[in-house]
Amino acid sequence: MRPRxxxxxxxxxxxxxxxxxxxxxxxxxxxxxxxxxxxxxxxAMAPVSASPTSASNGLDSVFAHIVQAPxxxxxxxxxxxxxxxxxxxxxxxxxxxxxxxxxxxxxNAVRKAEQLLVNDVSRVKEYLPIVGLAEFNKLSAKLILGxxxxxxxxxxxxxxxxxxxxxxxxxxGEFLAKHYHERTILIPQPTWGNHIKVFNLSGLNVxxxxxxxxxxxxxxxxxxxxxxxxxxxxxxxxxHACAHNPTGxxxxxxxxxxxxxxxxxxxLLPFFDSAYQGFASGSLDADAQPIRMFAADGGELxxxxxxxxxxxxxxxxxxxxxxxxxxxxxxxxxxxxxKLVIRPMYSNPPIHGASIVATIxxxxxxxxxxxxxxxxxxxxxxxxxxxxxxxxxSRGTPGDWSHIIKQIGMFTxxxxxxxxxxxxxxxxxxxxxxxxxxxxxxxxxxxxxxxADAIHAAVTGGV
Length: 463
Fold this sequence. Notes:
Helices cover about 50% and strands about 10% of the residues. It has helices spanning about 1-15, 20-40, 50-55, 75-85, 110-120, 135-145, 150-155, 165-180, 195-200, 220-230, 255-265, 285-295, 330-345, 350-360, 365-395, 405, 420-430, 450-460, and strands spanning about 90, 155-165, 185-190, 205-210, 210-215, 220, 235-240, 270-275, 300-305, 320-325, 410-415, 430, 435-440. The strands form four sheets. A seven-stranded mixed β-sheet has the order 2-10-9-8-7-3-4, with helices on both faces. The radius of gyration is 29 Å and the shape is globular. Belongs to the class-I pyridoxal-phosphate-dependent aminotransferase family.
């Protein structure tokens, strides 16, 4: 700092004879005062380091003991992908829909709904209630349970707006940890990695039930039934409503019926995670059928609902938690306690994304346009499955790859092991989670051949 002030004084002094304005004189005096103060050893002003952190290397920080956390196993794939300069790289890790050109998409129905909201000058930015936007909650319950649901007609349902699917799971988990008599929750093996953390931090005891059979690359239905049978009575059971993540393997309707009967006979409490309604098969009703099957028998259940995938509202964080109870007065008390969970967590949810959803769900034209776009997204993913299967078959890649077209939804569990995945990343610049899960939405007709080549090389001796 001193040379800068000295230079300033020297310049000011040399020009003082030619400049005698009051402003110049005040600046000259201030500069001389600062130099004198900084050069005086007895000055009370301590010298300021330009970079105090670099001077101490952070060793005097109260957080110096903290170690670098690993990247999230799913989101970390994108971090690695972004660092790769290769022009042929592919990101098949994160579950977000892409067009045939590999671009993110905003649905036309969403853009139109947003325009309506922008043009409505009566809208304000006041806080929502703790439970969120009332119209959004009502319409979300109807979308997932069906407009003619007896539970809705009998007022046995409470729905609260939450922060997408993750936030809905967390609120539901904390509510159960506080008010439900059993703290054990069974989740499928494997499942979405965040389920474990969400429920552990909610205060629940996480255990697994068998779900995926690596040999058949399908459902281990017998193992699932045995684990439900041996579970403590009253245990919570997490169920993927459709398009199981990460495997893409779903029970058949008959298997769902057997699962329901066993869950009810054992007094287990079903907690559905519905992240892909309409996005899996293209039909909103078909993808909600397992949930409606459970709601129809008069029993109780929870549903965490997300609009990230089916409306493309990823960053808006729009979701809902619905709890179906046995009586209207119970539902009212449950809602009162849900408020006590939400209030100290995030106080109340954001308004914009929920308003988009409510606008689309209440407007028949927008709703119809949305369902057409939704089916188009689902159909493109189904097409990618068929194209990848055909490409692998045409290369004569060893093994049975029919699971690619049998599985459903955004993800395919390829059956590739971690060594094969690492080989494909290193040699072909293809990024996916180490368990071999790929996002079909990240594929296009142009990139399918590259992926098929990589899979063939990995399977036939690349590792």
